[in-house]
Amino acid sequence: MWAVTAGAGQPALLVEWVESGGPHVKKPERQGFGSKLIQRGLAQQLGGEIKLDFVPTGIRCVITFPISTMASDQNDMDEARGRYAS
């Protein structure tokens, strides 16, 4: 699910990923590479916030970041594209 929120500040994009129907889930005892990548790398790059919930029925990840962090015009998109490998 995704939505644009107005909130108290600037408009933000909220993305919610929910996994269910799989095996029983428990919170990991340590933070692995994937969790670090999501929570630190993605949050820092987008200037947003990541919340991971590990409940017995599945995993829920909510990603929220300001829309202003996304490229606003073609020049920004070309510049951003040059920073990433394809």
UniProtKB/TrEMBL annotation:
Molecular functions per Gene Ontology: ATP binding; protein histidine kinase activity
Enzyme class, UniProt record, top EC level: transferase
Entry keywords, A to Z: ATP-binding, Kinase, Nucleotide-binding, Phosphoprotein, Transferase
Catalytic activity: ATP + protein L-histidine = ADP + protein N-phospho-L-histidine
EC number: 2.7.13.3
Superkingdom: Bacteria
Listed PANTHER family: HISTIDINE KINASE, TWO-COMPONENT SYSTEM SENSOR PROTEIN
Protein name: histidine kinase
Species for this entry: Microvirga tunisiensis
